[in-house]
């Protein structure tokens, strides 16, 4: 069945809008025009877990499937380990607990919400006990977890104290609100000094992680025996030389010149000082400056410079900054020498004129 369309029929008018609809559109129009496109929220990446070389990953993966620990990805690392990434905090904690219970060797990093705040309090005398400093900070309302006295390498205590606090609002405001410790004023709160290079684990002696998040076997910093450094019988006065567990050479593991230590070049502090052991330039003598080999040159014979050619009629001359010589001079230069005519010297003409005058 065909339906014919009447071309002369008037089109239907659009439905009339009510006043309430018009007011609603006017109210929402500025909001729509002024709205800006916001970027999607950034995906938060949680701390990965690094399994050490030799871990039975097949058994770990099977147990994770059985225990419903659904990690995101597992890839091999450069040192023949395995890096496991977790999608959320619950999966990270479940996998961490499983690896600790089954005594698998791994290391990881602390979660952002679990990381502690560390501050250095400067100006506290060395004879103040750290227990009383901690008790005084807690009485002022700061949730201090621990307080440590900073010392030099030789064990001499400094007037510096390191305070460790949880990540709370009170701890973040410590540097602005703290002005007195144990009744002593004139103190100063600073952030801990960062060396600018990767840290070293005091448990396994590897780099780029801390011992608090390491579950690997303990290794001594002085010898090859697997025990804690504090239990090592070697001392500075012992005859036996230390041994590095990372490279096997006769030095401690924390030696910066170790070939396994990461090389770090500071970009924020360029070395502007001149080196004191710079080599002096060699003295100038015939040994340091040998004679150069003579170059072969061909002698120039019968060389005549080319003369400028006169302009041709009907041809445009190219303009240049150099001034052209006058035409008369150019003609004299280009004219061939006269043939059959003897050229006289101008002094000979003067002598002839003087002879004529004397005859008169």
From TrEMBL:
Q: Where is the composition biased (Basic residues)?
A: 314-332
Coiled-coil portions:
none
Against InterPro entries, the record matches this protein to: Pre_C2HC_dom
Where composition is biased (Polar residues), the residues are 289-300
Where in the numbering of this chain does the Pre-C2HC domain appear? 130-199
- Which superkingdom heads the taxonomic lineage of this protein's source? Eukaryota
Q: Where is this region: Disordered?
A: 1-35, 261-347
The protein's name = Nucleic-acid-binding protein from transposon X-element
Gene responsible for this protein: ORF1
